[in-house]
């Protein structure tokens, strides 16, 4: 029992690695996750709109994109993008592997975000789009002001869950060979564990991950419950009311 505690929960090693985990690992993990999520949200929405398009020249490439990035292992995609582009001489971000890790996670996340957005948008009754068109709104305006906001609201818990997944996937960016100051939580814990021959630093890294993911998980559950019971304010009705007023004045 003592050997088990010493191998996984050595307090001296945990306290020793904790400053680097917080000052370097946590900061880089959040930068990687938040930056990748922003990319995923932007591209994911564009891909989602292409998926629901009536034009096959838009929907088919979007479907291939989603199936490809969702079907490949995350670590393989990160390596192919993060190492493949520099090997080909394509270095828009310079020699550092850090931005390539962000782009890789963003592209992977965008495939999942696209399906989440698509399901949310298609869950909105088609009658709302028809009503908006009847009020004189164009298709694009009706989608942007009426349908899409409601769809995003419905799938917000799923989007938050995807962010949690991206936070955990940042642990795979180590395959790109990050510099010392660019290491995320997992790599810092792994490096020290290899030096001291003890897994306590990795356990410490895991605990920091839990400090991020567990509160977010409970938040998702709380938000999902609020959405199901209708206790989250609905702002979309304001857009409809505004449109109706504009139509009346016209």
From TrEMBL:
Family: Belongs to the binding-protein-dependent transport system permease family.
One Gene Ontology term of the molecular function aspect: transmembrane transporter activity
GO cellular component: ATP-binding cassette (ABC) transporter complex
Official protein name in the record: Amino acid ABC transporter permease
InterPro entries in UniProt: AA_ABC_transptr_permease_3TM (IPR010065), ArtM/GltK/GlnP/TcyL/YhdX-like (IPR043429), MetI-like (IPR000515), MetI-like_sf (IPR035906)
SUPFAM superfamilies: MetI-like
Entry's transmembrane regions: 30-52, 64-85, 202-220
PANTHER family: L-CYSTINE TRANSPORT SYSTEM PERMEASE PROTEIN TCYL (PTHR30614:SF0), MEMBRANE COMPONENT OF AMINO ACID ABC TRANSPORTER (PTHR30614)
Record's keyword annotation contains Mitochondrion: no
Domain ABC transmembrane type-1: 26-220
Compartment(s): Cell membrane
Keywords: Amino-acid transport, Cell membrane, Membrane, Transmembrane, Transmembrane helix, Transport
One example of a Gene Ontology biological process annotation: amino acid transport
Domain of life: Bacteria
Membrane-protein topology: Multi-pass membrane protein
